[in-house]
Write a structure and sequence with these properties.
With 127 residues, this protein is of the alpha/beta class. The protein has two domains: 1-61, 2,3-Dihydroxybiphenyl 1,2-Dioxygenase, domain 1 (Roll); 68-127, 2,3-Dihydroxybiphenyl 1,2-Dioxygenase, domain 1 (Roll). It is 17% helix and 38% strand. Strand 7 and strand 8 (120-125) form a beta hairpin. InterPro entries: Fosfomycin_Res_Enzymes (IPR051332), Glyas_Bleomycin-R_OHBP_Dase (IPR029068), Glyas_Fos-R_dOase_dom (IPR004360), VOC_core (IPR037523), YwkD-like_dom (IPR037478). This is VOC family protein.
């Protein structure tokens, strides 16, 4: 019935800051970017593998809980071949990264960090 995840959509408080974070720091590819005048909203479609991440801006977005244990989306996880260079890049840019943990069921390494609007993101070392 379902084939794959097509996209995940995020509403950000500072569109330019979030766009730089996802494109320049995390290295996602910009597919397209449009300004929707009728909604006073920017929208960027970014590619990571076969999935898209949509970034939206709105004039006054409502804040919601962002803790990884809050109801709703727990976090967004990115697969990486090696955690170490990605963590180094994030920390060099001033992003706080939690200590590396080991998945007790798979033995894989993973860690968490927050994006500019404090949404929890995970890096999962998928060998």
């Amino acid at each position: 019935m379902l084939d794959a995840i097509h996209h995940v959509a995020l509403i950000c408080t500072d569109y330019d800051r979030s766009r730089r974070f996802y494109v320049e720091l995390l290295g996602l590819d910009l597919i397209r970017e449009v300004y929707r005048e009728e909604r006073q909203s920017w929208k960027a479609d970014l590619r990571i593998g076969s999935v898209q991440l949509e970034l939206f801006s709105f004039p006054a977005p409502v804040m919601r809980p962002s803790h990884s244990e809050a109801t709703g989306l727990r976090h967004l996880a990115f697969a990486v071949a090696n955690l170490d260079p990605v963590i180094h890049r994030l920390e060099s840019a001033g992003v706080a990264v939690e200590p590396i943990r080991i998945d007790q069921y798979t033995g894989q390494r993973f860690t968490f960090f927050n994006e500019p609007d404090q949404l929890p993101l995970e890096l999962y070392e998928a060998l």
